Fold these 2 entries.
Entry 1:
Amino acid sequence: MQLQPATMDDLALVGRWFDSPRALTLWGGPRLGYPPEPARLAREMDWPAAQNLVWRRGEVPAAFVQLFIRQGRRHVARLAVAPADRGQGLARALLSELFRCYPREDFSLAVYEDNAPALYLYHSLGFEVSGMLDDAPGCLMMVRLHDR
Ligand SMILES: CC(C)(COP(=O)(O)OP(=O)(O)OC[C@H]1O[C@@H](n2cnc3c(N)ncnc32)[C@H](O)[C@@H]1OP(=O)(O)O)[C@@H](O)C(=O)NCCC(=O)NCCS
């Protein structure tokens, strides 16, 4: 699996993977606006310290993830798989690839407590709940320590 930098067109496509305001919020937090406009997505997501990455099936993005450093940990944000590609192990493969690329790093992420598929996945890969996110009600912080 090779992750590549996301283009503006990729971001716009990823924004269309969510079919309701709630689905969009579960993925990207409350500030994106529904339906997401590409310019606003770029404003919220395309900042210098963040890597926006896609995994392509052929030319077309099938999975997306944002990475940045938060409190000394590799923070995994806005992980998403294209609706037609879900349930086939892509998210598990993508995260496993990140652990392989950064074997000596601790990881963190935030996930809403009612996002059952994502919670199941993260628990199964060794993430543990470390607290609640201050500015997003119902959002858990999880960490995965490399030397656990
Ligand atoms: C969460 C998400 C990234 C998972 O991607 P995926 O490629 O479908 O996940 P995988 O196929 O790798 O599945 C990983 C595990 O989650 C489980 N899972 C997947 N979909 C599930 C569902 N709808 N309900 C319960 N468990 C589910 C699978 O059983 C799998 O476990 P297994 O390997 O033991 O069978 C995907 O559902 C998604 O894009 N959701 C919308 C965006 C989102 O909420 N992102 C998370 C932000 S924190």
Entry 2:
Amino acid sequence: MSQKEIEESLNLLEKNWEIDPIIREFVLGKLTDVADHTVKVKDVVFHLPFLTGEKKFVLWKCYWPDCHNCCDRQGRLPLTSDDLITIGKGLKYQKISEFIKKETVLVTWQEPGPSGQYTSMTTINLKRKEDETEADDGTHISCRFLDDKGGCSMHPDRPGVCYLYPFSTWLENEGGIARVHATFQFTGDCPGFYLADNLDPMKDVLKEYSPIIYDYNMKSNRTMRESFGSVNFS
Ligand code: SF4
Ligand code: SF4
């Protein structure tokens, strides 16, 4: 996402939520005194921003059900092979092939990596609106499965990726062992970021998300191996 797009998202967000001015500057990439603080929680290495000038961590909590902005401004819903089975069944399809044909769109997109490199991803994405095409990929669409109470009509069988936001995750090869890493994605759409002196307020969230993130990575990796998607490093 470009800085302009993030700024537009933040401006919209600020119509309904009060955003700390320091968080705003940080999300817009205007702060330079940012250190990467890593903390391992179970099988996941989390990378959390530490603002060295402020001596504060950037942490997160979710405001749902008062907020459902991530579903209102959903950019894409890549599916794992497990998702294809559970969501296909949930939408009453007898055959996965029929579900894929009617409810999904095949998309290739560039994923920015943690060290500035780009990875080309090809994934089967759940349509966020019935007439979605590849041209809509990455645009903000209010997801058709968001119900009038701000919940997901597919819950708990919603796409695995929906459980991740606002984290983004990747695998790194550490001496032949695949290690799962996670960090926040700052799209300007989430009001849940705040400043804190230490990691204590987020300890339970990290414990809750660690197995979710680990499982998602394993499922996503298996999806690529089963050729329901592909990944190319450039
Ligand atoms: S946008 Fe952020 S605070 Fe709102 S529901 Fe999504 S994750 Fe929670
Ligand atoms: S599938 Fe459900 S959780 Fe995911 S974006 Fe749509 S409404 Fe939100």
